[in-house]
């Protein structure tokens, strides 16, 4: 009789372990965000481009950063590209055949490989005070596949341009540029709980009067276009499975209040992209029921042996 009980106990334990090992649901989440700003120029009230000769003081500081995360591994770089995890396209791109700052074709999105990585890239060229203007691009891509542990791919990239200046003659300043914005979040239908994909963009410009100590009156321009900022936020979860994409391409501009001659101003442009894909694999309800039944059987057999 003890032999039967021991056999039953072993069977219950084996079944519990087997279902716990292979009964978990599959998952995949993908997020991508790209922001290209081109031909960014500073224009005077006559519509002509400011040049360095128009300023009595001009100090320019450009910085950029790329952060990519794969599970507990986080990599940082002053410029991209940077990949944490195994990017299918290697360090130069998240997928083969895709440009540095080019969205994936719809057909590619439908057949994305099950890979977990975070990818970030940045580029900054030209000058807002020279012909052709300034060009800034950032990309953040994250992908996560099924795993027995909590996994995440995250990327956050950005550039910041700061100008401290004073004008030789009073004038307004218009910032004008072409924007190409793209975000996508994808969680396939049938994905297990705890799968999330999110992407967003951020771009803003602010000019403040450094000679005015009052924060309520020192701002002469504050511009964060919805076409790049709030409208670009996309996300998907297992409860809202599928793909959400956002695209914008167009010309944007904003004009400051009058800037007085000889006054010290600071102009700051912030430009960033963010993508996050994460998944925590958990047992399916049916698997949980089987595991519970196995544990209950083991408990009952154990109690009978003691009685």
Automatic annotation (TrEMBL):
Residues 134-153 have a biased composition (Low complexity). It comes from Pseudoduganella albidiflava. Residues 130-153 are annotated as: Disordered. Coiled coil: none annotated. NCBIfam families: PEP_CTERM, PEP_EDSA_1. Keywords: Signal. The keyword Transmembrane does not apply. InterPro entries: EDSA_1-like, Ice-binding_C, TAT_signal. It comes from the Bacteria. This is PEP-CTERM sorting domain-containing protein. The keyword Repeat does not apply. Residues 282-305 form the Ice-binding protein C-terminal domain. Residues 1-27 form the signal peptide.
